Amino acid sequence: MKTNKLKLLLLLVLGAILLGACSGGRATLVNTWAGLSADGSNAYLASGYHVYAVDVQTGREVWRYPAETDTNIIFYANPVLTSDGQLIVGSEGNNHELISINPETGKDNWVEPFMAAKGKWVASPLVFNDTIYAPNSDGFLYILDLNGKMSADPIELGGSLWATPVTDGTYIYVTSLDHHLHIIDPINGVSINTIDLGGASPSSPVVGEDGVYVGSFASNIEFITPQGDHEVLATASNWIWGTPALDNGTLYYADLNGVLYSLDIASGSQNWNGVKPDGPVVANPLVIGDVIYFVTEEGTFLALDRDAKTIWEKEVGGKIYTTPVVSGETLLVAPYQAEFALAAYDFEGKQVWTFTPEK
Amino acid sequence: MWQTFIIQPMVNLLLWIYDILGHGPQMFGVAIILFTVIIRLITWPLNASQVKGAQAMQELQNDKEWQEIQKKYAKDREKLAQEQMRIYRERGINPFASCLPTLIQFPIIIGLYQAVIRAMAATPLDMLNLARTVYPFQNVENIIPLNSTFLWMNLGRPEGIPLPFDVSFLPNGFPLLALVVALTTYVQTKLTMPTTPPNPNDQAAAQTAAMTSSMAIYMPLMLGWFALTFPSGISVYFITSNLLGIVQYAATGRANWSNLLPGSKKNTPAKK
Questions:
Q1: How many whole angstroms from its chain centre is CA B257?
Q2: Interface check B226 vs A, CB under 8 A
Q3: Max CA separation in chain A (angstroms)
Q4: Taking 50 as the threshold, does the pLDDT of residue A27 lie above it?
Q5: Mean pLDDT of A169-182
Q6: pLDDT tens-digit profile of B24-71?
Q7: Which residue, A129, A137, B119, B146, is the most exposed by fewest CB within 10 angstroms?
Q8: What is the pLDDT of residue B87?
Q9: How far is the first Cα of chain A from the last one, in angstroms, to the nearest whole number?
């Protein structure tokens, strides 16, 4: 009889383990892709339990934050460098910490992290006029001074805020997953206009001369003025995830079908037709000089000229969702679920080094 | 395979229900309840065969021929098994019919768990996976992201009512839903227990009774723990499913309500 009870108990425990195993292991595993930024000397990779500073010349780890693994903190938002020498990064975890790190030493800058937000930090903050505008997935835009203290009441925008705000020098533009773009007057700390995009927007707008351009899950590229006037400039074949790149009157963007677009803003016509590499594109395009760089979910890093002609194409490995960044003459790519966490390429597409964090 | 046949249909069904409900506040919880009702309706014949099978097995305990072979082949287990199988065959009883619905519950629970997590899309990767999961004919741009609020809960997170003081082992507060899950599971399990003790000569029946008795303890504890740990959307499924199970069993007129009373010995297997 005892044997039967034991068998039953084991069966139930097995069921529990099975269900637990299906959880994606959120508490122990990073469930999304890494954040990445860089200055002239280091790349800053927010990946899992740590933010890593990696020397862009050698690919060696300079420091990691925190020095000891703390399973209550998980990083994947892009770290942001401020003009006063801070590296600000938010975390997912029990305390929803927004942290300021000294980029030279990897030590805490603030007396204590900012922990008043109720949701995880998916977006990076905007630093504008010595003020930190930090959008949180709890739907609030938190306003802090450079010491990490709240300098004004947070602005409730609603939905989940996953994208870094941008500014045209006067207003702040914040997108939300609740389908809206909010235009904020930073002086009065109020939202002056809210525009319905028709779909969630997980990415930032890009600032143009008279307004901003933004993509959304409604598969549209919209142009929006500070007064709240807006129009659909172009459509895509699927959801637009990344922020478009604006260069010389042309908007470069891509969609989840993997179609790449080059939109001439003045005429409203598409310069490219049927340009479709090997997989969906989530990351923002990167424009340097006359070269447009895209990364795909299939792990491909490609450089195109303005006529969509492939200059080079590299198989990085893993899946690439993180927007590549440039540091001096080095292009940095952070693949997800690859053999390494970060790779550096020169402008000719030659891999210079890879970085895998030591355990 | 799992993705195509379990997760994807479940996510799309959930999103479809949520969409026709108007995708407002509270509606994802309502969608989970309706989803559970649909799943229960689909598995109704299986559950009915479970009830029927359990009843047939119970009636067999009082059958003279069954009792005779227990006595006659008490020392020859192989022969006893052969005779039992013969009786099962002759009377059209499937001894495993009562296990099947329970086994089917597990992939549904795991699938629903993954579907809720997928639909809630709490991280960018979850959102990307959700985009992949949605069937092309579903226009979900309007409804994504889902509104996860239901009553006092966030369906994407474990439930708990905030307490005025910190309790280290209850990080989410007072686990009301986990208690309701455990209670309804207990009630459902107890109701389906046999009203009569097994024949003392029938070892297999005695073992089954002992296992059923253990289930009444372990199942509420396990599902209660699931409710404590996993997103509260799963708890909504458990409670709805349990209540429907109770109603379905009660409708047969065989529910053993006296089993719910503490100290009831009716189902205790007889000692040899």
A1: 19
A2: yes
A3: 81
A4: no
A5: 96
A6: 889 999 999 999 899 888 888 877 777 777 777 777 777 888 888 888
A7: A129
A8: 85
A9: 47
DSSP, res B258: G
CA distance A198 to chain B (A): 7
Residue B196 pLDDT more than 70?
no
Residues of A in contact with B215 (CB under 8 A): 8
Task: Kindly list the distances between the CA atom of residue A82 and the CA atoms of A126, A136, B162, in Å, as whole numbers in the listed order.
Answer: 9, 19, 38
Task: Kindly report the nearest CA distance between residue B68 and chain A, in angstroms.
Answer: 23
How high is the pLDDT of residue B211?
67
CB contact (8 A) between residue A19 and residue B144? no
pLDDT at A255: 97
To which residue do tokens 């892709």 refer? Answer: A33
Measure CB to CB from residue B113 to each of A22, A31, A159 and give the nearest one.
Answer: A22
Query: A143 vs A127, A152, B184, CA distance in Å?
Result: 10, 6, 46
Count of CB atoms situated within 10 Å of the CB of B252: 13
| pTM of the full structure | 0.80
- What's the confidence (pLDDT) of residue A270? 97
Cα-based distances in Å from B271 to A272, B89, B155, B206, B245: 82, 29, 46, 9, 31
Instruction: Report the residue of B214, B215, B223 to disrupt the A interface, i.e. the one with the largest count of A CBs within 10 Å.
Output: B214
Question: For residues B12, B15, B19 and B24, what is the CA-based torsion angle, rounded to 10 degrees?
Answer: 180
pLDDT at A2: 53
CB-CB: which of B113, B128, B171 is closest to A282? B128
Contacting residues of A for B113, CB less than 8 Å apart? 19, 22-23
CA nearest A81: which of A32, A139, A29, A42?
A42
Where b means 16+ CB within 10 Å and e means fewer, B163-173 reads: eeeeeeeeebe
Spell out a b/e string for A193-225, using b for 16 or more CB atoms within 10 Å of the CB, else e. Answer: bebebbbbbbbbbbbbeebbbbbbbbbbbbbbe
Smallest CA–CA distance, residue A268 to chain B, in Å, is 24
Q: Which of B125, B141, B229 sits opposite A32 (nearest CB)?
A: B125
Separation CA B199–CA B183 (nearest Å):
30
Closest residue to B218, CB basis, from A12, A76, A200 = A12
Q: How far apart are CA B218 and CA B224, in angstroms?
A: 10
pLDDT at A102 over 90: yes
Taking residue B103's Cβ as centre, other Cβ atoms within 10 Å add up to 10
Angle between helices B232-251 and B100-120 (to 10 degrees): 150
Query: Residues, chain B, total?
Result: 272
Enumerate the residues of chain B whose CB falls inside 8 A of the CB of residue A23: 113, 117, 230
In this structure, of B108-112, B197-201, B208-212, the range with the lowest mean pLDDT score is B197-201
Report B:160-199 residues touching A (Cβ under 8 A). 171
Among B201, B214, B211, smallest CA distance to B84 is for: B201
Please name which of B126, B231, B215 lies closest in space to residue B172, comparing C-alpha atoms. Answer: B231
Least confident range of A270-279, A331-340, B148-157? B148-157
